[in-house]
Amino acid sequence: MLKWIKNMLSGLVIGVANIIPGVSGGTMMVILNMFDKIIGAVSDFRKDIKGNIIFLFQILLGAAVGIILFSKLITYMLENHLVVTNFFFIGLILGSVPLVFRNAFPKEQLKDGKKSVKISSVIWFVLALALLVVISFTKTSETTTNIQTVTVTFPMLLQLFFGGIIAAIAMIIPGVSGSFVMVLLGIYPLVSGTAAALFPINVSLWMSTLIPIGAAAGLGIIIGLIVGAKLINLVLKRFTQQTYFGILGLLFGSLFCIYPGFLWNVEGVVAILVGLFGFALAFFSSSEKLKQYFEKKNQNA
């Protein structure tokens, strides 16, 4: 029972992370020590079908609860307090950089304990950074929408399906935000708006809008998770440093995309404080010493 609760709470945190543009559900998996378990359960599903179904159901149920409970809050904050909210995201992103950098140098791959950066890793970092910088200056996307005014069309459903696949692959990469990818693809307002409008139940809205949008995006996300888990598992094992340096480039590049501007006023001061809180939250929650402390505590319990 305790394992069920732990897995569902982990899923809830991952779900909440995945609805916040700029925040990585994959990073939350790493912080919660769930990354290898989740990737393994999906990519090696046939090895233990019953056990993997139960485990993934617990994670997905927690994630669904997190998305439904917090989608309204995130929508409200983005609509009414964009600067403060995005500074919090910026703090979280910067705070997760040390974790991603550490992951680029697995202990078993170090020679004589020394960290050596490969030229190919630098190239991937620059390419990933340049990609998001270019996107930030050429594409702007809304992060909120009134779902009740949306008219569902077939091209929209195709966009949601394929966008869901791409976002799902992104959301399981530590350091990359699946919801931010949805923002760049232009489907985030529809997905977040649908989640926020689930309750109270409006049968007419459900049938005309919420179910079609949810089905198209949901099917894409499921396919993306299956394909992405196998792909990420392979790439991270074979090209560990290059992959994580590419992730670092995406992290720094995402700052250009979500920076909301700044003014020295009351809101600006609050935004800085909230950003520092976000940085501290991500930095200390991914701290190696903190992780070792809890592992030692669990062993002694």
TrEMBL record:
Transmembrane portions of the chain: 12-32, 53-75, 81-101, 122-140, 152-173, 180-199, 205-232, 244-262, 268-287
PANTHER family on file: INTEGRAL MEMBRANE PROTEIN, POLYPRENYL-PHOSPHATE TRANSPORTER
Record's protein name: DUF368 domain-containing protein
Keywords, alphabetical: Membrane, Transmembrane, Transmembrane helix
Keyword Acetylation in record: no
Highest taxon in the source lineage: Bacteria
Organism: Clostridium facile
Entries under InterPro entries matching the protein: VCA0040-like
Pfam families: VCA0040-like
